[in-house]
Amino acid sequence: MSSGLPRTSLAWRVTAGCLLVAVVAVLVAALVTLRLVSQTGREVTREVLADQADVIAAQLSDTTAPVRLAGVRQVVAVLRGQGIAVVALGDDRLGAGDAQARAVLAKAGLTGPLAAPRSVTVAQGGETWLVEARPTPGGGFALLRSAETGPVAAGQLRRNLGFSLLAGAGVAIVVGAVVGGLLARPLRRTAAAAHVLRTGRRDVRVPVRGPSEVAEVAGAVNELADALTRSEGRQRAFLLSVSHELRTPLTAVRGFAESLADGVVTGDEARAAGRTIEREAQRLDRLVGDLMELARLEADDFRLDLLPVDLGALVAEAAPVWAERCRATGAELRVERPGAPVTVYADPRRLRQVLDGLAENALRITPPGAPLVLAARAPGVLEVRDGGPGLAPEDYAIVFERGALHERYRGHRPVGAGGVGLALVHALVTRMGGTIAASRAPESGAAFTIALPTQRVMEP
């Protein structure tokens, strides 16, 4: 079910992801670089400002020559032209500076003659000011400069980083679009193949290439197509088999019913025809019942009554019924029971249905004089074995598939109605939380071994 959110293509998502990574990388690099460069620029600006202050202080310390004082004034004029404020602190040979410079010095506590050099950093008016003050014979002076206008200007640095961010975003968009297109192309092929599979075609295949994840998806779609082909083939074979099984008794019922209706058979022949009709109707009823049970097992409302069941008692209860049926066919019934109760949690009615289904299948192919074994043993194992012809080694892998053995052995040995009996048994055992496996029996035939839970479990 759709979540209601708009869907976006893989190419767009890859492009957006590359753009996001590029922007985050540039921003992180910009922040780190800006901080490092700002600190370095401030240190360089302060060192240059300190050197300039030391030069002026040295010249003002010896003012005997008027020419030297004139040179100092020229230096001061040059510094002011560079954005460096020169403010006199009691030395009337230098200018008093502007109001902003005086405010910065006042905040730094530099308003009078100095006794020693001072280096101060002051935040004023949203700017960071670097102050280098030096004492002179006349009182002292101070050089002030904004950290934003030093040799390494932070403003210019921010502009350069902004340009880098834009360039990185542009490259990310181009690279993301190209990479996204390359990645999306095989996925589009895979999606197209899946749509074709949905329409019913099973011959579609996707080239398995590209990145490993994409190739894995393509391989999975190909495997799905193969599995659907096999499954639908088995279903068609099963339906054909069931149709054949239904047609045979229906043909007999219809033929004998027409003979009775037309008066072709009378007397003892009519009674024999009635028995044949009854027998074929029971066969139809068993087949339809098995099919309905399989359908119900796949529904969510199928209920089981899981109760404690003694497997030994279950086998003892079923033994007289199967002893009578074995005498009718000439087979030999053997019952193996433990001395102590073997308790499992299962649905008693369904478990008896499983036992009877396996015994009926076994007895159908057990020749006269061969054994049919009903066995119960700890822990929680129920087993049905026979002395019949058994199964081929490759049959064990498909023994519980609907109609598989029926189709393989029809015409070669007696088979059940439609080949759904073992599939029904497997479904019932699984729904009760147990497992069932087929193997070769010591009696030379087939053995079906059921393992059931010996503790109460949640109903499936």
UniProtKB/TrEMBL annotation:
It catalyses: ATP + protein L-histidine = ADP + protein N-phospho-L-histidine. This is Signal transduction histidine-protein kinase/phosphatase MprB. The lineage of its organism: Bacteria, Bacillati, Actinomycetota, Actinomycetes, Pseudonocardiales. It comes from Pseudonocardia ailaonensis. It is found in: Cell membrane. Its cofactor is Mn(2+); Mg(2+). It comes from the Bacteria. Residues 181-233 form the HAMP domain. InterPro entries: 2C_sensor_his_kinase, HAMP_dom, HATPase_C_sf, HATPase_dom, His_kinase_dom, HisK_dim/P_dom, HisK_dim/P_sf, Sig_transdc_His_kin-like_C.
